Amino acid sequence: MDPLIVVFGLGVGILVGMTGIGGGSLMTPLLIIFAGVKPVMAIGTDLAYGAITKTVGGWRHWRKGTVDFGVSWWLAGGSVPGSLVGVWLLDRLHHRYGKGFDDTLLLAVAGALLVVSLAILARALFMPRLVAKEREKVEMTRRVKVTAVGIGLVLGLVLGFTSVGSGALIGLALILVFHLTPHRVVGTDVFHAAVLLWVAGLAHFASGNVDLVLMANILLGSVPGVWVGTNLMTRVSSNGLRPALGCVLLGSALGVASKAGIPVPVAAIVGLPLTAGVVAWVTLRIRPPLPPRSTPIASEAS
Computed from CA positions of residues 28, 31, 34, 40, in that sequence, does the dihedral angle turn out positive or negative? Predict the structure, then answer.
């Protein structure tokens, strides 16, 4: 047993249960930066353990009634085949270029994390009107179904290739495109991820990219962590969680980029997320309160 990995699993599991974000977005960079795991193995193991962790979380959210099943299943219609293509592409490139591909893969992971962190921060701080549009449920019109499949296909490809996206990117789509409320975003995202990660994780296992011992250590912490996180979800302010997660992911992106050989100073890895956090705190403090959220069911994604 590796206590450090167990602690990583516990912390990430709590975040997954509370927010739907934290699986690939945090565990993969933690394994690469602090545990010295090779990028391909970190991605495969992360997706495999995430399948079990998010199954526990998905069941808990289903019991709490925070899952929009229509959006989940139509997203899966695109994300499942997309993730298989991503795993296949990663496996082919790794076999062709070997260790020389590791830095390129690290840059891909860092890029995905950077996009996610900036999008979450921008959404939390500069798009307050989106909060006013949030809904508890989306009506599954034909346009919404096509949109869900298309988004799932693209983001599933990203997830299969980098392990980033099961929570961070897809959760962002649930907010920006489908306008679900934060708690419904978390529940729908975790439930969908449980389906998606089983497919992607098994594909990585078949490709030999899963370390079962490492996975067992992560699960020792992540399974109880996600159980705790789902219980804490309704007690934590979503207004504080959004920018906090964006700052953490920004730090992760810079750390992974540094691991890939980009000369990112330690001061920047720590200082930029802290600065973003201070700016977020000040912005949220001075921003006038939003009008009460309307309750009609969304007729379509826009």
Answer: negative
Q: How many residues does the chain have?
A: 302
Q: Write the secondary structure of 154-220 as one string of H (helix), E (strand) and C (coil).
A: HHHHHHHHHCCCCCHHHHHHHHHCCCECHHHHHHHHHHHHHHHHHHHHHHHHHCCCCCHHHHHHHHH
pTM: 0.75
Q: Say yes or no to pLDDT of 302 above 70.
A: no
pLDDT tens digits for 6-54? Answer: 998 898 888 777 766 666 677 888 888 888 888 889 889 988 988 888 8
